[in-house]
Amino acid sequence: KTEISQDQFINACENNQLLLSPNSFGGSGSYVAHNWSGDTDFLSDTFAPSTTFNAQDTGTYFVKYQVWDSNSCSEKDSININVRKGPRVSPRPSVTVCQFDDLKLYGNPSSGSGSYVAHLWQGDNDQLNGDTISEAPIFFATVPGVFSLNYTVTDFLGCTASANVTVNVNEAPV
After folding, report:
1. Which residue in 6, 11, 26, 77 has the most C-beta neighbors within 10 A?
2. In this structure, are residues 32 and 52 in contact, taking their beta carbons and an 8 Å threshold?
3. pTM for this model (two decimals)
4. Contact 99, 172 (CB under 8 A)
5. Among the listed residues 103, 99, 102, the one whose alpha carbon sits nearest the alpha carbon of residue 170
6. CB 86 within 8 A of CB 155
7. How far separated are the first and last CA of the chain, in Å rounded?
């Protein structure tokens, strides 16, 4: 007999991808067919052993997975996915500052669970003086140029959001 091992209830975040990859075992020979049904509008593939779920809206979604082995024996399992509201970020996307001036960057997280457990600034972050994990670090550039950063916040439920920030640093007058 073919069997499937997969969590029956899964929590996910809106606008975040979730890999659904049930573990099929038993049966005879190889697994020759796979089918996903139910709320399939949010699945990347409905005929693969694994698929990616990506809902844009909160709510409860229901999907069914069925697998067949080479002897035409099949097994199915269902999964309930509870999609929660994810956080939002709204930093200023483009900022201009003069060389040697301090600039406080703001990630401006909102929504989601309301409790944020991690902040991360990546990219050209050498100008943050090692402070890459606060919501509002100080940017300080000693050289002119264009610096690209990415801000990511993670809320208490593990949901994430990110946005890009460009800092244009003009040469200081002599």
Report:
1. 77
2. no
3. 0.76
4. yes
5. 99
6. yes
7. 80
Cα-trace Rg, the chain: 23
Torsion of CA 63, 69, 72, 75, to 10 degrees: -30
- Taking all residues of the chain, what is their mean pLDDT, rounded to a whole number? 91
pLDDT tens-digit profile of 34-45? Answer: 999 999 999 999
| Alpha-carbon separation of residue 140 from 11, 121, 126, 129, 162 (angstroms) | 40, 14, 9, 8, 22
What percent of the chain is predicted at pLDDT more than 70?
A: 97
The label of the residue with tokens 């697994």 reads: 31
CA distances from 93 to 11, 78, 105, 163, 166 (A): 31, 42, 10, 8, 6
Give the pLDDT confidence of 114-160 residue by residue, as tens digits: 789 999 999 998 999 889 999 999 999 999 999 999 999 999 888 99
What residues contact 41, with CB distance under 8 A and at least 6 apart?
A: none
